[in-house]
Amino acid sequence: MMTPLSSARPRPAPALPPPWLDVDAWHLPRLPLRQARQAERPHDEAVHSPDGTVRPPDESPRRVDDTARLREHLSGSYAALHGRLLRRFRCADLAHECLHETWLRLQRPVLAEVREADAYVFRMACHVAIDRLRGQPSCLSLDDPAAALPELVDHTPGPQAVTEGRSALAALSRIVDQLPRRQRAVLIALRVEGRSRADAAEWLGMSLRSVDTALRQALRHCEQAAALI
């Protein structure tokens, strides 16, 4: 009995890859056209967003949105953030500088997704403040002439200065009491109360020339009496 011949045509042999193509890559599955173009694009090539802006390839739209949202939150809540930093670190200048540096750091893209903008910005500002405080010296030497220690200088007069001032004031009061009534009134009105010449003349019922003469005589008497003390 004879075996019937099959009517199907034999399959052609697979085409060989071109000589310039890697043989191992010839059998790999093909990518869609869009993915293939993205794979062929260099990593340092800029990416054009649908809105027309250009961003680096590693900067996704989500990161751009988070960075802009954080900067906007810092600008809108600056007073509240400054108050919280002031209560924590007790220094208004430090709080201002930390918020300014936080704004500069937010110019770079955020690496992770941010859910709470207020907590993220405040925590970043606190870290900046801690870094600044750690960079400052923990102690200063009082023997160092270059050390600026204005808060340690007491400008209030001591007991000796207070005693000398009271003694000089009592001596001046005795000298003024020795002046004639008109000269004493002119001296007190012009040099103690700070009145003008016209105001003192009107108040005392004197002319401007009489006021000038009385003041000159009173000052001469005080100078001569103080030289004898």
UniProtKB/TrEMBL annotation:
InterPro entries cross-referenced by the UniProt entry: RNA_pol_sigma-70-like, RNA_pol_sigma70_r4_t2, RNA_pol_sigma_r2, RNA_pol_sigma_r3/r4-like, WH-like_DNA-bd_sf
Keywords recorded for this protein, A-Z: Sigma factor, Transcription, Transcription regulation
SUPFAM superfamilies associated with the record: Sigma2 domain of RNA polymerase sigma factors, Sigma3 and sigma4 domains of RNA polymerase sigma factors
UniProt GO MF annotations: DNA binding; sigma factor activity
Positions of the UniProt region annotated as Disordered: 34-65
Residue span(s) of domain RNA polymerase sigma factor 70 region 4 type: 170-222
Compositional bias segments (type: Basic and acidic residues): 37-48, 56-65
Biological process, per Gene Ontology: DNA-templated transcription initiation
Top-rank lineage group of the source organism: Bacteria
Keyword Magnesium included in the entry's annotation: no
TM ranges: none
Family the UniProt entry places it in: Belongs to the sigma-70 factor family. ECF subfamily.
PANTHER family recorded: RNA POLYMERASE ECF-TYPE SIGMA FACTO, RNA POLYMERASE SIGMA FACTOR FECI-RELATED
Protein name stated in the entry: RNA polymerase sigma factor 70 region 4 type 2 domain-containing protein
